[in-house]
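Hi W.,

Here's what went into the run:
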Amino acid sequence: MITKRIIPCLDVNKGRVVKGVGFINLRDAGDPVELAAYYDGEGADEIVFLDITASHERRKTVIELASKAAEKVFIPYTIGGGINRVDDIREILKKGADKVSVNTSAVENPNLVEESANLFGSQCVVVAIDAKKVSDSKWEVYIHGGRTPTGNDAVKWAKQVENLGAGEILLTSMDKDGTKDGYDLELTHAITSAVNIPVIASGGAGKLEHLRDAIKLAGADAVLVASIFHYGEFTVRQAKEYLKKEGINIRI
Amino acid sequence: MYEKYIAIIDYNAGNIKSVSNALLKIGALVKVTNSPKVIRNASAIILPGVGAFGNAINNLEILNLSGVIKREIKRKPFLGICLGLQLLFEYSNEKESSEGLCILKGYVDKIPEGVKIPHIGWNQVNIIKNDSRLFDDIENNANFYFVHSYHVNCEDKSIISSVTDYGVNLTSSIEKDNIFAIQFHPEKSSSKGITMLENFWNYVKEEG
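Here's what came out:
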């Protein structure tokens, strides 16, 4: 049966990894492609690159990243960050990326999700949702890197993007992101029980138990992990061995 | 002496870049091509592909490649990947039924209902043909990366070299003489996938 996935996430600014990684002996630990290739060797199931370059150059940097990653990364990888045109999605996929993640552009133009799913297949369209709790069991969707509330309910939006043809949801809890307190299990569970497409839980991982809980208790198909890998607290391999021991179907 | 190379057929059906990069990584010589002459002169052929069956067949026809594939597959190592496996069969029920390359008997059908479609992700490959060269140094039930909504129904079950359990049983690879074809993506399957491509390249160096 299909395995649960562990996905390291790399934030990239102007072609460099944000919060450089000091613990591993890489020729250039600030190079996102070198780092992704390292995680491939460690047993990561996929890689997500999020380009946060805040300028008009971003279009160029994401396409370059897609192309360079294809030379060294031999697991599936997703590219996200300000992508808002079908032509750019086509170009990124053609360079060798497996999926493209859209966030703000999906909210502003839901047609982008539908059109890309029709043209390239649902399997390469990931919709990233940044959600923040507003009241009991209610979460609101934010865009522009978490700066702008949209008024959209996260559960309703998740169902809507599924209907538009998204192949996967990358769900980040803004409340938990950066806390190392664990994923927002209630939010994750609300979304995984509302849709039939895979959900990647994101935001809050601090211990290996958190990864287990997101999968076992909240129904996540995959977990996105950043700092605990980047700062060397745990290796991908340790995380996988732990989850396997906990009875989760994992690729070792 | 001319150098041996693998022709990777480029017919606008995706994932060509990743396949050629993975082969370059292991030191294989490749030419990404849509020229019948380059395909004829190659020691081996790889037919990759992602996307719709009907479009792929149309592209092969427009580029005049169906004929050369059908002729060359009789005399050199061949590796089909994903759609490159499915195209070898007689027809597909994807959208309107389209005719395939008719090299192998059988057809392509939607993955049966009751499981999530597409089948995306890492899944175990159960090797049933134990002496398969493609699986040299790869243990039984290793995980490979899949992305597909359709699967092959092979008439001659003896050519099935591995199967995968996705709630429904799927044929994950076939092997018949010099013809190898796989449903999953070795170019996205990390070190196991690279080993598989190396096995194919070693076979090409010996036989092609």
